[in-house]
Write a structure and sequence with these properties.
Largest sheet of chain B: 7 strands, antiparallel
Structural class of chain A: alpha+beta
Radius of gyration of chain A: 15 Å
Structural class of chain B: alpha+beta
Strand order of the largest sheet of chain B: 2-1-5-6-7-4-3
Order of helices and strands of chain A: HEEEEHEEHHE
Shape of chain A: globular
Distance between the termini of chain A: 8 Å
Strand content of chain A: 35-45%
Number of strands of chain A: 7
Oligomer: heterodimer
Order of helices and strands of chain B: EEEEHEEHEHHEEEHEHEEHEEEHEHHEEE
Largest interface: A-B, 51 and 56 residues
Chain lengths: ~150, ~450
């Protein structure tokens, strides 16, 4: 279950990717532009640009296995969410401001660590697919001796 | 155009972290950020293995992996489908990656913790453009977007640099000409030159440009920071995403402290407070390290692969120029004074200060303090103390390099004493810290100790 403090971290707008795998155990991946955490802490929704969602969605529909990594570029605090696919839908206008706000925050942070906005303005953010994942496990992903430890 | 690993060269700089995706044998995917991806050859890359983690366990069970790298010139992201071939803990690929990681670790005080355990070599089975992180220029090897730093090592620029170097009449002018040329011809505004100190394993800053404090006399030890690592490995090091890499290493340091693995104290970063790119080049002549040239930039991706190759070539030329000048100055300084040409016109006297200077020589540490502040140590300190003693005892103000070289009490090395470099270092250090005590060149191998203040000398053990 995602606790309140961790939920607040996940939805700040950081660098995030979702990973899946096909039947040959080959990984696939896509950038996540925004995340939300359900109030119960048992589900997260990953917003993935539609242009790159197909391989991941195909895997998730076939076997359900997902991993989402989130890292804050300013201090490399990181977390990995392991879970199973619940459903996916096209993100609607009601989601767009949330996606834009988290993405903007992420670009601000990238600028702070030396990557100007001009370098990332071509990256495609919208439209998105909202992929809902049931959380099964959480892991600390901050680099260093404790990386990979389960988060309670 | 089908991309090749060669065409993705800018991706290997680590300016934007790569992401690694793996899958366990029982089908659970894993995603992680990665410190370094290194080009090996046209079919292989190496990934840094620094910590035992889930990614490492997964590839041991299932060698298939996916890595996403971003070209900092075009912003295009590329997905590389990989298969683990082997792990290397020695050899050129490991050493190259290790050197870069060591440089970052030494700045953040996590040497021994933030380190390379192995270079994992993967065969690249496919390279695909990523559809979301799409660049302004889609094809690999295409033109960089406007604003990306240009390689500036044109033949004309190298010719201009050569003319400046050839025109220098003494080591003092030569070193300043090199640094001025790097800025005015190539646009590198922050640079420093270090030469081996008398103490083995230590380099000392003899000239710098583009910093508030010249840092003349500042030392770097072998293996510490980019300068020390370049000197130790005798290979150039280029770090482009230094800020990102240091943040990553800093996260490791924080975790290490929390885990009770106390890292050694942080080594102060020389030069810029927050350099985003650094390039260190060993200045070598026939296998001998003449010095290290370190160039810094606040731009994250300032130095390209072509820059490294070009400046390495330029470094070889500069090394020969510096060594030749040192040998020439020594040969000229060894000529008896009577044979030397007329003395230079007297320089304006040092500014006279009413306040006397208290100068203390610590015999045990061989260092000189002026008014309670550190001035210099080692051979330059012994020289200064000798000059001050003669000046205050006998009133003599003029000296020759030759008499210093013959003075057994100074304990100069038998071979390659680098006396002229040490005198230059001392002169520059005095200019910076005590402008009322000056060494003024009078002719080849001849100089004056000019005092614009009363000095009170004291020796302590």
């Amino acid at each position: 279950m995602v606790g309140r403090e961790l939920a607040a971290f996940l939805i700040e707008g950081h660098s995030s990717h979702i990973a899946s795998r096909n039947e040959r155990l080959e990984p696939n991946a896509a950038r996540v532009t925004a995340l939300t955490v359900d109030d119960d802490g048992h589900h997260v929704v990953a917003y993935v640009p539609s242009v790159s969602a197909d391989p991941v969605l195909a895997d998730l529909r076939a076997n359900g296995q997902a991993a989402i990594v989130v890292t804050r570029p300013t201090d490399d605090r990181g977390c990995q969410v392991k879970g199973v696919f619940v459903d996916a839908r096209a993100a609607g206008p009601e989601d767009q401001s949330l996606v834009r706000a988290q993405w903007d925050h992420f670009l601000d942070v990238l600028e702070m660590v030396g990557l100007p906005r001009a370098a990332t303005e071509s990256w495609i953010v919208w439209p998105c697919i909202a992929i809902r994942i049931r959380v099964q496990a959480l892991f600390d992903q901050t680099p260093g001796p404790g990386a990979g430890a389960p988060l309670s | 155009m089908t991309p090749t690993l060669e065409s993705l060269a800018p991706c290997w700089q680590g300016l934007i972290p790569a992401t690694l995706y793996t899958c366990s044998r029982d089908g659970v995917p894993n995603a992680a950020y990665l410190s370094h991806v290194e080009y090996v050859d046209e079919r292989h890359v190496a990934l840094s293995f620094q910590f035992f983690n889930k990614s490492r366990r997964n590839v041991a069970e299932n060698p298939q992996a996916l890595v996403r790298v971003i070209d900092p010139d075009s912003s295009q992201c590329w997905a590389l489908r990989l298969s683990l071939v082997r792990s290397e803990t020695s050899g050129p690929v490991f050493e190259r990656m290790d050197l870069r990681i060591e440089a970052i670790a030494s700045y953040t005080g996590v040497k021994g913790i933030f380190k390379l355990l192995a270079a994992d070599i993967y065969e690249v089975q496919a390279i695909e453009p990523v559809a979301d992180d799409v660049g302004g220029v889609f094809e690999a090897g295409g033109e960089a977007r406007p604003g990306a730093a240009d390689a500036r090592f044109t033949m004309r620029a190298l010719q201009d640099m050569t003319e400046r170097v050839n025109g220098a009449a003494c080591l003092d002018v030569l070193l300043d000409s090199i640094l001025a040329g790097l800025e005015e011809i190539f646009g590198f505004r922050h640079a420093m030159l270090l030469v081996p100190a008398e103490e083995p394993g230590v380099l000392v800053t003899i000239a710098s440009r583009g910093y508030g404090d010249t840092g003349v006399g500042a030392e770097a030890r072998l293996g510490e920071g980019i300068v020390g690592l370049v000197a130790e490995a005798r290979k150039p090091i280029r770090i482009s995403g230094l800020l990102r890499a240091m943040l990553y290493a800093h996260a490791v340091a924080t975790r290490a402290q929390q885990s009770g693995m106390a890292p050694p104290p942080r080594i102060p970063l020389p030069g810029l407070a927050s350099p985003a790119s650094q390039l260190g080049v060993p200045l070598m002549v026939r296998g001998e390290l003449v010095g290290v040239l370190c160039i810094e930039s606040e731009e994250p991706y300032r130095f390209h692969e072509e820059d490294k190759a070009s400046i390495e070539l330029l470094g070889s030329y500069l090394a020969i120029a510096i060594q030749n000048m040192q040998l020439q100055e020594r040969a000229e300084a060894d000529v008896p004074v009577a044979a030397v040409g007329p003395a230079a016109p007297a320089a304006p006297p040092s500014p006279v200060t009413a306040r006397p200077r208290e100068i203390v020589y610590y015999e045990g540490d061989e260092l000189v303090m002026v008014d309670g502040e550190y001035l210099i140590r080692s051979l330059p300190a012994r020289i200064l103390w000798k000059l001050l003693a003669i000046r205050t005892r006998d009133g003599r103000a003029e000296f020759t390099n030759r008499e210093l070289r013959l003075d057994k009490s100074l304990n100069l090395p038998e071979l390659k004493d680098n006396l002229e470099s040490r005198l230059l270092l001392l002169r520059r250090r005095l200019e910076q810290k005590t402008p009322d005590i000056r060494l003024v060149p009078r002719a080849r191998g001849r100089f004056a100790l000019d005092l614009g203040c009363e000095v009170r000398l004291r020796t302590l053990p």
